[in-house]
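U., I forgot to send this yesterday:
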Amino acid sequence: MYYKRTPRGLRLHIAILGRRNVGKSSLLNVLVQQSVSIVSALAGTTTDPVEKRIELAPIGPVLFIDTAGLDDEGFLGNLRKEKTYRAIRRADIIILVVEANIWTEYEENILRIAKQYNTPVVVALNKIDLFVPGEELKLRLKKENIPFVETCALERGWYQTAKIKAEIIKLLPSWWLKPSSLISEIVSKNDIVVLVAAGDIQMPKGRIKLPQEQVLREILDIGAIALVVEENQLKNAIFNLKRKPKIVICESHILDKVLKVIPPGVDCTTFSILFSKYKGELEILYEGIKAIDNLKPYDKVLIAESCTHHPIGDDIGRKKIPYWISQKLKSKIFFDIYAGRDFPLDLKKYKLIIHCGGCMLNRKEFLSRIYYAKKEGIPITSYGMVCAYILGNLEKVLAPLFGKELV
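Result:
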């Protein structure tokens, strides 16, 4: 089914939260009308978050995240709770499941965290077959404009799904209703856009990389003309064009080679820079680049890589960026590498965070990491920014996006 091919980073993330045994997994099964999560009367059945991709009409591609109970106990329970809190940080919408007549400090804490991350919440007052929803709680939720539904997650009819889906639709974030774009602000119909892939051993077999695929899709949607080449074909490809391309977009670590080939008057940027703008806050990431020159010997830098690929050869985050920075500063700098959804909460030991373009993350998770870095007073920037800055081409790659506004 084609909807399953929509990357996680482009899906609406909906986290289902609550204490143990309140019916979170049952509710997920109702929402997707499938037995996705194991349901048991035994508390703590769900351990690691369960993710389910689905096309939820008329919303579109959604990723539901069923989490462990917030009141989990013991050493392993604390680890499971930490994974639950990670799910909160990437959630676009939270469904908070409670037993219809019980409200505790755990639920209050979720509302506080949701407010901190500006994440809308819908409360599911569950098990109405057993309990009468508290009138005082309903009045309080109405007063605070927190939507709620009364439900019995054991009833699998579509009307149960429709009730919750109606509330989700009301909470859809503005970026979902009117999505931002990668390149539509800089490319018009019939423009020629050249995409340059690095012909290295990290190119996935049988396909192109996700950032290139998404940019290519948008070029076609705009009605522009796309030309995809490897770096060793770029010079010949441009020479054979009857007119100059509007822009050349390349991978960050080959930027210096690409700039030597493209003719004057042709814009150039990188996939990482485009995704830094698409998923994050480019101005904040631009400010963070200045921290490189303030690094002192033995300072620590965090490299945050959202991919979980096996590093091969001259990996950009693990090898090239640390090497370039150490060479530029002529001093010993320590680098910690975190991959996938691993992201440390203790940031105080770092003088700088360098994040990948975030193509595997949804926008909310990338923004939550930027927010957390700002809260801790730690500068944050991106792979693309660092590569362009080290190579002396930062203004060149930012100009197509911002002109003189930023640079």
